[in-house]
Every structure is written in C-alpha cells, then in structure tokens.
UniProtKB/TrEMBL annotation, chain A:
<dbReference type="InterPro" id="IPR027417">
    <property type="entry name" value="P-loop_NTPase"/>
</dbReference>
<dbReference type="InterPro" id="IPR015854">
    <property type="entry name" value="ABC_transpr_LolD-like"/>
</dbReference>
<dbReference type="InterPro" id="IPR003593">
    <property type="entry name" value="AAA+_ATPase"/>
</dbReference>
<dbReference type="GO" id="GO:0005886">
    <property type="term" value="C:plasma membrane"/>
</dbReference>
<dbReference type="InterPro" id="IPR003439">
    <property type="entry name" value="ABC_transporter-like_ATP-bd"/>
</dbReference>
<dbReference type="InterPro" id="IPR017871">
    <property type="entry name" value="ABC_transporter-like_CS"/>
</dbReference>
<dbReference type="GO" id="GO:0005524">
    <property type="term" value="F:ATP binding"/>
</dbReference>
<dbReference type="Pfam" id="PF00005">
    <property type="entry name" value="ABC_tran"/>
</dbReference>
<dbReference type="GO" id="GO:0016887">
    <property type="term" value="F:ATP hydrolysis activity"/>
</dbReference>
UniProtKB/TrEMBL annotation, chain B:
<feature type="transmembrane region" description="Helical">
    <location>
        <begin position="237"/>
        <end position="258"/>
    </location>
</feature>
<dbReference type="Pfam" id="PF02653">
    <property type="entry name" value="BPD_transp_2"/>
</dbReference>
<feature type="transmembrane region" description="Helical">
    <location>
        <begin position="207"/>
        <end position="228"/>
    </location>
</feature>
<feature type="transmembrane region" description="Helical">
    <location>
        <begin position="129"/>
        <end position="151"/>
    </location>
</feature>
<feature type="transmembrane region" description="Helical">
    <location>
        <begin position="264"/>
        <end position="281"/>
    </location>
</feature>
<dbReference type="GO" id="GO:0005886">
    <property type="term" value="C:plasma membrane"/>
</dbReference>
<keyword id="KW-1003">Cell membrane</keyword>
<feature type="transmembrane region" description="Helical">
    <location>
        <begin position="85"/>
        <end position="105"/>
    </location>
</feature>
<protein>
    <submittedName>
        <fullName>Ribose xylose arabinose galactoside ABC-type transporter permease</fullName>
    </submittedName>
</protein>
C-alpha cells in the first residue's frame, strides 16, 4: 500500500455563531491515495465547505491531525499550506485578481507558495507557454492574455482559475462547486477540462458538487456528508454501481 | 514666465507625495491618513538633521527613513493589531504631531544660512526657480524608474495582487499582512522624502505643513487619471507626475483670477471634489456627448 496523499484524523471543527459554539465537523476521518479523485455531496450546511476550509487552513480544527504528502500541516497557516494545496471556488470573482491580466495572474499562480523576491518577473518568456495552455480551455482564453481578468466571462475566469490552480502541480486540488455558477454548456465544458487536467497530472482532488450526475460520472470515489459527518463513502466498484436514486435517498429521506 | 517655471518645479517636487500615496490609495486600496503626519515628520527630521550639521544628502535620506518608520507603525497597528487602517493612520498622524514638535523644538524652524540639497554652485547659477525643476526632475526620474522596476518583480507583483484581491493572494501563498506593511512603509517613506525635500525647497519646516497634503497627493493621482484615461502601470506613474504639475497650473490660474492665498485649501478641496465627481456627471449628463454635439437648443 502506498503512502496516503491526505490523511484527516479525528477532525472536529467548531465555530462561534452568535456567541454559541456550533460544531460543523464531527469526528471526520479520511484517507486519500495519490491520484484519488473524490466527489463530495451533501445538503447545505452538511459541512462540505467547512471541510475544505479546515483542510486549506482557513478554519482551525479543534482536534485531530492533517497530514499531506507525509507532512503534518495541522499547525500551518493558510499561506504556508498554499505550497501544497490549491483551490478553485464557486464564485468566479474569488479566483483571479480582476485588475491584473490573464498572463499576470498565471505568473502569480506559477509561484504559488514560493518565496517572492526582487527577481524580475519575466512575463514575456512565459507568454508562448501560457498561450498554449490557455488554448486547451477551448473558450478563447488564449486571445485574452493581456486582458484584465475582470473583463472576462464567468466561464473563462473559472477555466483560468483551474489553470492557475494546476499550473504548479498541487499535492491536493480542492474544487468547491467550481462549475455551479456557469450555464449548463459552459459547466460541462469546464468539467471535461477539469477531468483532462486531473488525469494528465495525476492529481489528487476533492470536488464538492451539487450536480448528482457529475458526482456519479466523475472520480473514483464518492463521499456524502451529513450533519458534519461522513455519512457514506463509496469506493471504485461500489461507486460504479451507484444510481441517481441511491443518492437521492440521502437528500429526500423517505418518511 | 517665472510663475510657470515655479509651478513646474513645485509640481515635480510634490509629485513624490502623489507617487507615495498611489501605493496605498490606489494599489492597496487603503485610505492611509498617516500621510498628514508623515509629511511634516520627514520635514522635521530633515531640517533638524541639517541644523545639526548633517550633510544634505544624509538629512534627505533620513527623511525617507523617518517616513518608513511611520508607515511601519501604521502597518503593524493595522495588520497585527487589527485596528482599521483609517483609524490606525489617524492615530499615528495625531501622535506624530507631538513627535514633530519635539524634533523641531518649536513650531517653525528656518533653514536660513544652512546648507541644503539646493545649495550648489550649479543650481545657484540657474535662472530663478529652475533649481526646483532640476532637483524635482532628478528625484522623480529616479523614484519612477525604481518603482517601475520594483512593481515588475515577483515581490512587486505579489504586492499588486494583495491590493487587487487579498483572498486570492493568500490562497497563492502570499503573506498579505507582510505586503501591506511593506506598502505602507514604502509609501510613507516616499512621503517623508517629499516632506524633507519640500522643507529644503521652502527653506523651513513648519509643524502645520502636513495639513491638506492628502488632498494634494490625491489631486495629482486623480488629475493624472482623468487627463490620460486607461494606462499601463508604468504610464500611470508618469501620469501622476504630470497630474501634480497640472494641479499646480490650476492653482496658478485660480491665483491669477484674484483669489486670496488663504483660500487655497478650500479651493484645492473644491477642485478635487469636482474632478472626483466628473465620472458621475459624465454618466448622468453625458457631458462628452453634449460637448461633441455642440450646444444646440433642441426646443
């Protein structure tokens, strides 16, 4: 058995809401193998985003340990963990710097987690490489290299966010409903592109989605979160046999 | 003629202030009020050093260092102490008033018969007011080139990204508090430097010389933006220097119209307010379209 890529051990996360402690994650244990592509389902408030925030370091875990690529990151800040983790958010506005151009954003992402000193940025040297990269998205991003990202369409911005997240291969890619804000066609395109990037780089990935079909179609493992716990965990073959109605049971419990 | 040369010279010297302000107000999107304390702080430190016999270049450099120190305090209050930036700046500005009085010893210190950066055979051989044009040109050129180079480094890009989108910057491993402190230090350093140079140009430092400096700096930035429109980062730096000179011309015209110099600050504020509202008027009344059409009476 290979060393797991991500280990979550007995994670409990509590936040204060109106001065009342509220436990959002309860006793979460999880191990991902390198190359695992895991889809995560759950109703609103089930703890999906909390899970991501805890892994990425935005929220501290009250108990437990987080180990990434054999490295204990439990005490590391979000900024320190950025060396290993990259993330794409649901809101296209969250992933890119709006007044900086597409190429400048890519350059920033290329240095994710690296020390940034007084070296010249050498943007021109990378332009050809970035153009080729952007051409893969199939939405004309390669023609917008010098456009501030604030002027791009939502689909283009999300594709760019995904490129930025995977430009420097992360130990863990977190996709937080990254297609949810897009129209169905653009959303399908981006999911296909996501699959290509994940396969090509053999990425380990957790993907939150509300789209049950996507959850079934993509990835080799499926988690269902309920009330801050992992309620179901389907591996390879189990996942292959899952049907839409099996999943719907989680969301519309029969009375 | 002398008035025009003087306006250009003053515009260039004061452009340093606009460039400093640009780093916080525009790039970081921080309303940094420290400025009104930093400017006289730089002036006080510079003048005190000069009257104690320091070499002019050293005194000028000390003004820069003093400004950076003020920026550091505001930055630490804002990032580590979680004091809102606006308030942190006001606190430092208020505190600096006392510090400046201590440094100067009294409200106004003259540089009469003291050697300054303007004391040189070459500068004194020039026609009147050309000395500030030359000194201003040199400082502005050096500062703009260094800033432009800096903003194109990996660190500079991380700094810009921090101002543009702090959440994204952190997700990419950029320590945003560090960038914010650095920006405030650099910005206030330049403003302290401006204070030091302008004190030497005026021939004195005054405890109240900081009042209204934010308006002057913002005027340079905003007039530059309104005059030149969409620009690249490097061009924007040059536009600030031009904006600063334009602002001096506007004041010159106002003065020629017969206004009292006592009303300068009110006029400055009104001019800036009008310039800032221009985009709003533009949207509402389509001034440009109206101007193109000419003033024709429809009904």
């Amino acid at each position: 058995m290979t060393e797991p890529q991500l280990v979550l051990e007995n994670i409990n996360t509590t936040v204060l809401q109106n001065d009342q402690p509220k436990q959002l994650l309860k006793q979460v244990n999880l191990q991902l193998q390198p190359g695992d592509f895991v889809t995560v389902l759950g109703t609103n408030g089930a703890g999906k985003s909390t899970l991501f925030n805890t892994i990425a370091g935005n929220l501290p875990a009250q108990t437990g340990r987080i180990v990434l690529q054999g490295q204990d990151v439990t005490q590391q800040s979000e900024v320190q963990r950025a060396k290993l983790i990259s993330r794409v958010f649901q809101d296209p506005k969250l992933g890119t710097a709006p007044r900086m151009t597409v190429a400048e954003n890519l350059l920033l992402a290329q240095e994710r987690g690296r020390h940034r000193g007084l070296r010249p940025r050498r943007l021109k040297q990378h332009l050809a490489e970035y153009a080729a990269l952007c051409a893969q998205t199939g939405n004309g991003l390669e023609r917008e290299l010098d456009t501030p990202t604030g002027n791009l369409s939502g689909g283009q911005r999300q594709a760019l966010s995904l490129l930025m997240a995977t430009l420097k291969t992360p130990a863990l890619l977190l996709l937080d409903e990254h297609t949810a804000a897009l129209d169905p066609k653009t959303s399908r395109q981006l999911m296909q592109f996501t699959q290509e990037r994940i396969t090509a780089q053999h990425l380990t990935c957790l993907m939150i989605t509300h789209h049950l079909q996507d959850a079934l179609q993509y990835g080799n493992r499926l988690l269902v979160l309920q009330n801050g716990r992992i309620a179901a965990d389907y591996r390879q073959e189990q996942k292959a046999q899952l049907t839409l109605s099996d999943l719907l049971d989680f969301f519309e419990p029969s009375l | 003629m002398n008035l025009i040369v003087s306006a250009i010279g003053q515009g260039l010297l004061w452009a340093l202030l606009g460039l400093g302000l640009f780093l916080t107000f525009r790039i970081l999107d921080f309303p940094d009020m420290t400025v009104e304390g930093t400017f006289p702080f730089g002036a006080s430190v510079c003048v005190a050093a000069l009257t104690h016999g320091a070499a002019p270049w050293l005194a000028t450099l000390l003004a820069f260092g003093a400004g950076m120190l003020a920026g550091l305090v505001t930055g630490v209050l804002a990032t580590k102490g979680h004091v809102p930036v606006l308030l942190a700046g006001i606190l430092v500005m208020t505190g600096l008033y006392s510090v400046n009085l201590r440094i100067l010893g009294r409200a106004n210190v003259s540089l009469l018969n003291v050697k300054t950066i303007f004391t040189s055979r070459f500068l004194e051989s020039l026609p009147p007011y050309f000395n500030s044009v030359v000194v201003g040109m040199v400082f502005i050129a050096v500062v703009i080139i260094l800033l432009a180079l800096f903003l194109q480094t990996e660190l500079g890009q991380a700094f810009i990204a921090t101002g543009d989108h702090p959440t994204m910057a952190r997700a990419l491993g950029i320590s945003t508090p560090r960038m914010e402190i650095m920006g405030l230090m650099l910005s206030n350093g330049l403003i302290g430097l401006a204070g030091g140079i302008i004190a030497q140009s005026n021939g004195y430092a005054d405890i109240n010389m900081g009042v209204g400096t934010i308006v002057i700096g913002l005027a340079a930035i905003i007039i530059g933006e309104v005059a030149f429109g969409d620009l690249s980062m490097n061009q924007r730096l040059v536009a600030i220097a031009c904006g600063s000179i334009f602002y001096r011309f506007i004041l010159l015209i106002v003065l020629q119209l017969g206004f009292n110099t006592d009303d300068f600050k009110l006029i400055s504020a009104v001019v800036l307010a009008l310039v800032m509202m221009l985009p709003m008027f533009e949207n509402k009344y389509h001034i440009r379209r109206m101007l193109k059409k000419g003033v024709t009476v429809d009904d």
